[in-house]
């Protein structure tokens, strides 16, 4: 009788040489990891874009927040949209150089600002742009409420970076100006705010009192110069065109030298 030899089964999934790693297997693992990472980043970007779009749609007809004051349902939806956007931006740094700039109010729950916006007509004027002008390097934040063509309420502050998203501030002085007059006001407080979302277009803020602020990057830079306010309405590598609080214009070019005292 012949004997049947029994041989151990060889699995097609076994490594042909277990003493050496299979480079193709590791390539597949790295490729899978990269694919998952890219997919996660794409999903996060899509989620952030959707939340941003929802927020901007919700505040678009709210008159900078005046209408929201009497609409708790809309307020709840806006806060939900802000919370969703904050989740997408929770791991980002929003207190770096990109925080600097002239930011223009789109919507807020801050009662003091809304009171001024609503009641400016009692003083024979209307509220223009409401701005936050921030310079991270200089540690300066200025809140500006304009009353075209000549008026402005201006609050100066110092700022200190507290964390990746929180900024501490302290008011240092304030002034109310008209065309030919100026009323200095005392500083009135300190606190903090967190930019929970920041990109090239908008910034979303929550402050120490639980108020919210949505601002966009203004198409101009606002600066104070020698006690008068002006804004650069045009700027390139060769010239700058400015208009000040009194309606005066200034056109200057870049000097071919640097002046120092």
From TrEMBL:
It comes from the Eukaryota. InterPro entries: PAP (IPR039633), PAP/fibrillin_dom (IPR006843). Keywords: Plastid, Transit peptide. Residues 51-215 form the Plastid lipid-associated protein/fibrillin conserved domain. One of its GO terms (cellular component) is plastid. The keyword NADP does not apply. The keyword Membrane does not apply. Pfam families: PAP_fibrillin. Its main location: plastid. It is found in: Plastid. Residues 1-27 are annotated as: Disordered. This is Plastid lipid-associated protein/fibrillin conserved domain-containing protein. It comes from Rhododendron simsii (Sims's rhododendron). The lineage of its organism: Eukaryota, Viridiplantae, Streptophyta, Embryophyta, Tracheophyta.
């Amino acid at each position: 009788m012949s004997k049947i030899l029994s041989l151990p089964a060889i699995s097609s999934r076994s490594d042909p040489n277990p003493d050496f790693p299979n480079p193709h297997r590791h390539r597949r693992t790295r490729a899978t990891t990269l694919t998952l990472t890219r997919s996660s980043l794409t999903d996060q970007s899509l989620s952030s874009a959707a939340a941003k779009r929802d927020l901007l749609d919700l505040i678009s007809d709210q008159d900078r927040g005046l209408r929201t004051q009497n609409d708790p349902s809309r307020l709840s939806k806006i806060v939900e949209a802000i919370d969703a956007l904050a989740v997408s931006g929770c791991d980002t740094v929003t207190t770096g150089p990109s925080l600097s700039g002239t930011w223009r109010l789109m919507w807020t729950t801050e009662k003091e600002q809304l009171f001024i916006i609503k009641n400016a007509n009692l003083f024979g004027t209307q509220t223009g742009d409401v701005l936050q002008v921030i310079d991270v390097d200089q540690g300066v934040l200025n809140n500006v409420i304009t009353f075209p063509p000549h008026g402005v309420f201006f609050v100066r502050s110092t700022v200190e970076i507290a964390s990746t998203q929180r900024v501490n501030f302290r008011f240092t002085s304030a002034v109310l100006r008209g065309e030919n007059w100026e009323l200095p006001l005392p500083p009135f407080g300190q606190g903090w705010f967190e930019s929970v979302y920041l990109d090239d277009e908008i910034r979303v803020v929550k402050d120490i009192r639980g108020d919210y602020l949505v601002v966009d990057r203004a198409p101009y830079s606002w600066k104070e110069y020698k006690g008068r306010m002006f804004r650069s309405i045009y700027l390139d590598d060769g010239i700058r065109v400015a208009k000040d609080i009194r309606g005066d214009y200034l056109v200057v070019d870049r000097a071919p030298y640097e002046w120092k005292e």
